[in-house]
Structures are given as C-alpha cells and as structure tokens.
Design goal:
- By secondary structure, the chain is α+β, with helices and mostly antiparallel strands.
- It has helices at residues 5-13, 39-45, 55-63, 75-89, 136-149, 161-165, 173-176, 190-205, 208-224, 228-248, 298-312, 341-368, 370-384, 437-454, 469-481, 516-545, 557-567, 570-575, 578-585, 587-597, and strands at residues 19-24, 30-36, 66-71, 96-98, 105-108, 116-119, 128-130, 258-265, 269-278, 281-291, 319-321, 334-336, 393-402, 405-415, 418-419, 425-428, 462-466, 489-494, 499-502, 505-509.
- The strands form four sheets. Strands 13, 14, 15, 16, 17, 18, 19 and 20 form an eight-stranded mixed β-sheet that branches. The protein has a six-stranded mixed β-sheet with strand order 4-10-9-8-11-12.
- Helix 8 runs antiparallel to helix 9 and helix 9 (208-224) runs antiparallel to helix 10.
- The radius of gyration is 36 Å and the shape is elongated.
- It starts with a helix and ends with a helix.
Length: 599
C-alpha cells in the first residue's frame, strides 16, 4: 500500500532502535500503539501490501495520517511502555484487556503495633500491601489462618510509647476474649509483636516453611525450659500451619516463586491465565480476556499479558512457565516450556483455568442473548466459507455402503447452528450398482432438491458434502441439472486433514482447528455419519434375513448368514463357482444356490 508523502519521508528517518510507535488519524486522534525491536523495519512493514491479509489492518493503514515514536533502550522497555500507553489512551485498533475490576489487598499498616486488614485502596504511607487477590475467598482464607495463629489488635488507637506509659487506654473486650494481648496497656512488648508481624509477612508471601521452622525452634526452647503449656500452644500452631500447607500445596514444594502463564484463543478473543506458585502452592490465580483488533497472534497476546500481569501482581519471580517460545526477551528471567513432570502439570492446570473461563463466558452470553451468540458464529461462517448469505439453514450429506450392498445416504440439518433432528432424512440408493460413492452422492443430491423444488420447500443457504473434490463435483452436477448451481453455497469436507473444498477451486482451505466455523462443520458432518451408519446397520441386519438367498427353496436364514459372512455380498455369491459355494454350505445346498443364480 502506497503511503502518503509525509509518511514516506518519515519512514526514511526512523531509527533502527527498539521503541514504541503511535499512529494518528487526520484529526490527531490516536489509532494504534505498537512496540518494535527495530522501529524502521516494523513500521515500514505496515505499508507493504504483501505483508498482511487482515481486513482491519488495511483499514487502519488507510487512516494513518501521522506517526510518532519513542526510542527506548531495550525491547522489554518497549513492551512495558506500549502496555502503559494502551491503558492510558485505549486506541481503537489495539488489543483491549477486558478487566476493570478493583482487587483487594492485604495491608499491614505502617504504625506502632501494626494492624492487618483487607483493603481495595492503596495509600502510599509506608504500609506494606500484599496482593492483589483475584479471589476474595483466597484472601480471606489467608486472613483466617493469621487470626487463628496470632492475636493482634484491631483498634485504631495511636499506641505511642508515651501514651502507653501514661496509661491513656484501658483493655477492651477483645483482650478478655483472648483475641488481643493488650499492647495498649503494656501487656505485650513491641519486640514480640513485631516478631509476630514478621511471621505473618512470610505467611502472606507464601513462605510457610520459614514460619514453621521458627515455631519448631520456639517449641524446642519451651520444652527444654519445661514450659509445657506454652509448648502445647506452639504445637497447635505448627499443626495448623501444616494442615493449611497440605491443602494448598498441589505440586512439589521445591517449586518455589514461579509464574505460570497459558493462553487459549478463538476468532475474537484471547484468554490468558496466570498462576503464582510459592513452595508448591498456588497463592495467586487470575484470568484476563483480551479482545483482538488486528488478528493478533497468541504469542503477541501472551507477551502483552505477561508484562501487564507481572506488573499488576508485583511479581519478582525469575522463572516463568509458558506453553511456547516467546520472541521478546525479559532480562534476568528464564522461560521454561515443560514437557513432563510437575511443571507440566502446572501448565496444564493453568490452561484448564483459561479454557474454563472461556466456556463460562460463552455460556453466559448464550443465557443472556442466545441469538447474538449464534449470529456471531453465522457471521464468521459466512466470512470463512465465502458465502453470500448467513448459513442459517445447513444440510449435510454422507453415504454408507457395505461392499456395494445396502447402499444408503443420510442428510442432517442444522438451523441457527443447532441440530434440527425433525428434518433429518435417510435415503436408500436406487440407481447405483456397486460401491460408487460419487454416483451415489449425485443421485441423493438430485432426489433431495428435485423434491424440494417440486414441493416449494425452504432451500438451505449451505450444503455440506462429506468428501473431497470428487463428491463435491458429483453434487454440483446435480445442482446444475436442477438450475440451482450458484444459488446455494456448497462445500466438501475431506475427513483426513479436514480440508474444505469449494467449487472451481482446486486448492483446499485449512481452517484453524479451534475455529468455530470448523467445529460446526465437523459437528454436522459427524451427525450425518452417525445417522447414516445407524440406518445402514439396521438395513444390513434386516438384509441378512431377507435377501435373494432366503427366497431360494431349501436355503434357510442360517445358511444365508454363512454365505454372506464369507462372500460379503450377494453379488459375489452370484459370481462364485459351485465348488466355492460347496466349501461353505455343502454339496446339496450349493447346487440349489448355484442353479438359482445360473438359470
């Protein structure tokens, strides 16, 4: 695509450095923000007409009236800057990360004898914040554990050393209930209270082992001093910690401070799941939804999400588990693509979480507005399959036969992406001799649509033929005879590689295996196969007992079954010699069969 003159001049002056570029329209409105290892090469690629096929990208490029850029030192700096600018300006053509929730944090207040509580507001006053927690339930579980292990104050008194010495405060009900040791009246020292806070910080970080070691050492000290009541209290705390750890640990405890990222995608969205693992326990889990704008790749979506989620959850892990290799280099971070073992188990768990999120979103969409969901799929099918109309009514055909005998066909029908079983039909092949799949398809298509025209039935917007180029050509021949060629969309689907064939196009289309279009086509094709096979088996079962053989005087059903089991079809029995038949059913009966077919 030829760039405007001012853009062409700018392209010549762009540096070969990493950086972020911004596209603007004629009104000065920002259209798109992108990152690049090499600004010159990346920006120039947008104006290469062979560089892209996505329609939205073409529209974007036509609207570009000005380009601005920011040079940075490294590619990771470019990624982080890109992420911040997208959040700030929310350009129309950028991936949109759909997640505007405010998540809670655990706050350890910056004060003498600190309080611990949950909050959604971060105040920069020196307090320690841990989180954010995507799950309030997980956060409350941690806070409940802390409450069971330690007695902390929950009042908001200003406990200065001076006010405590002047006895400005009195013990409250919490002290009498055993929920607080009353530091307000000097019954608990600041040193002991701060040690408790230090232990709590480790628990909140997920470092259960370090707290357990501290308590075990304290337990031993009490035992050596014969302070058995105090020892029992410490032992109960150790038991509580171990119980909590056993419930939260899902993999090897040696897997410590590791991030796990996975992604699932469909035509419109990407879903990235993040797990934070400390000492084998998942302490954070969160899934974000990214709306595609320019058909972004899974690698692009995952890279953007890693930068965003690590910043949001303040992750400092040096090891990240991912499903595939990333081009972007994150300094001092090791990316691992596990093939087996506990880390592979973690990646699979993350992927299940992402897939579960996607399915739940689709279910909710279906409940709220079922027509909107089916219309979206139909629009995608229309685009993918080059149709003139939405394929609200689809008919699919599949043939079945057994060595040329009992030839049948099945037609299944989908309306608005759902099976319409009352419209399913069976066909017995009438004019074709032997196993000729092409001729059978031609017969069935002709019969089906000849009758539809005569009875003025509703015609489908799409016909799906189970088979490749040959079956599709046969179906087209029948549509040609009926004057319907070009009036109904038609495709063939070959089972082996799920190739989609179009009329007058020798090169098949390969749809993404995750494509909703392909899934609908596979579903209606598999339904046709199942429906046809069921009818075929029933016909064969009846045919075993009612064939030309059973009409021969002296030949029983059992004898017929023996012959069909060996020769596979009546046609082959007719061609067999008397000696060949004799080997199966004996001389007398063989003579009856041979003479019947050779009168």
């Amino acid at each position: 695509m030829e760039a405007p003159e001012n853009i062409q001049q700018l392209l010549k002056t762009l540096p070969d450095n990493p950086g972020v570029y911004q596209y603007y329209d004629v009104d000065g409105k920002i259209l798109y923000v992108g990152k690049a290892k090499n600004l010159r090469k990346r920006v120039a690629s947008y104006f290469n007409k062979d560089q892209y096929e996505n329609g939205k990208t073409k529209v974007l490029v036509k609207k570009i009236a000005d380009i601005k850029y920011i040079v940075v030192d490294t590619e990771i700096d470019a990624l982080l800057l890109e992420n911040n600018l997208i959040k700030k300006y929310q350009p129309r053509y950028n991936v949109m990360l759909k997640d505007d929730k405010t998540y809670p944090w655990i706050c350890i207040k910056n004060e003498r004898f600190p309080r611990i509580f949950s909050t959604r507001n971060i105040i920069k006053d020196g307090s320690h914040y841990f989180g954010p927690y995507a799950s309030v339930r997980v956060m409350n579980t941690v806070l409940d554990l802390v409450k069971q292990l330690y007695t902390l104050r929950n009042c908001n008194y200003n406990l200065t050393d001076e006010s405590i010495k002047k006895e400005k405060f009195k013990v409250c009900l919490e002290y009498h209930l055993g929920n607080c040791k009353a530091p307000c009246v000097g019954k608990e020292s600041e040193e002991d209270y701060n040690q408790t806070i230090s232990n709590i910080k480790e628990i909140v970080k997920g470092n259960i082992n370090s707290v357990a070691r501290y308590l075990k050492n304290l337990l031993q000290e009490h035992i050596e001093k014969l302070e058995f009541e105090k020892a029992q209290i410490i032992k109960e705390k150790i038991d509580l910690l171990e119980k909590f750890q056993s419930k939260s640990t899902i993999v090897n405890p040696s897997i410590n401070n590791v991030d796990v990222f996975s992604i699932v995608t469909d035509e419109r969205y990407g879903y990235v799941n993040f797990l934070k693992v400390v000492n084998g326990a998942i302490i954070q889990s969160h899934t974000v939804e990214l709306k595609k704008k320019l058909d972004e790749s899974s690698e692009e979506l995952l890279t953007l999400s890693i930068a965003e989620l690590r910043e949001r959850f303040a992750s400092n892990s040096k090891e990240i588990i991912v499903p595939f290799e990333l081009e972007t280099i994150f300094p001092e971070i090791e990316f691992i693509i596990p093939q087996r073992g506990d880390k592979k188990h973690l990646l699979e768990l993350s992927q299940r979480n992402a897939e579960y999120y996607r399915r739940e979103k689709i279910k909710k969409e279906n409940l709220v507005d079922p027509e909107r969901h089916s219309n979206r799929i139909l629009e995608q099918m229309k685009k993918d399959l080059r149709l003139l109309e939405l394929p609200k009514h689809i008919e699919c055909f599949d043939n079945s036969n057994f060595q040329g005998d009992y030839a049948v066909a099945a037609m299944t029908v989908f309306k608005n992406t759902k099976p319409s079983k009352k419209d399913y039909r069976h066909f017995n092949i009438k004019t074709v001799e032997g196993p000729d799949d092409f001729a059978s398809m031609e017969e069935v298509i002709f019969r089906r649509y000849k009758r539809a025209l005569e009875e003025k039935q509703e015609l489908p917007q799409l016909i799906v033929v189970d088979g490749g180029k040959g079956q599709l050509s046969s179906a087209l021949a029948s549509l040609e005879k009926l004057g319907l060629r070009g009036k109904i969309g038609i495709i063939g689907i070959a089972k082996k590689l799920e190739e989609i064939y179009f009329p007058e196009d020798s090169i098949p289309l390969y749809l993404d295996k995750r494509s909703e279009t392909l899934k609908i086509i596979q579903q209606i094709r598999d339904e046709a196969h199942r429906f046809g096979i069921t009818h075929h088996r029933n016909k064969r079962a009846k045919g075993t007992f009612k064939t030309e053989l059973t009409e021969i005087k002296g030949i029983s059903d059992t004898t017929s079954q023996k012959l069909l089991s060996h020769f596979k079809s009546v046609t082959k029995i007719k061609l067999a010699s008397e000696k060949e038949i004799e080997k199966i059913i004996g001389k007398t009966k063989a003579k009856l069969v041979f003479e019947y077919f050779n009168k």
